[in-house]
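Name: Septum formation initiator family protein
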Amino acid sequence: MRELSAVQAQVAEMRQNIALGEQNTLDLEAQLRYATSDEYVVQMARGELGYIQEGDEVYILLDEPAARLGSPPAEPPAVVEEDSFRPLDWAWWQSLLQQIRE
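Structure predicted for Septum formation initiator family protein:
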């Protein structure tokens, strides 16, 4: 009788594990559908990569008050740090493509 009870407990635990696995599968499938949707691609391109679409109005905010008053722009830094990625930085993209080709 004890063995039957132990086996029934194992069966119940396995059924619970199966139900959890099925729910996990459904969650992952929903995430996959969203990650491959146009909505997600646009969100990532705009939010994370800073891309714009045709027709967007682009505003460049200047941090330095002197730049707002019409003084000449400051000299760019001589050395660009490796972690200073800016999505619209043409020199960075050229450097990346050159490294890939090598």
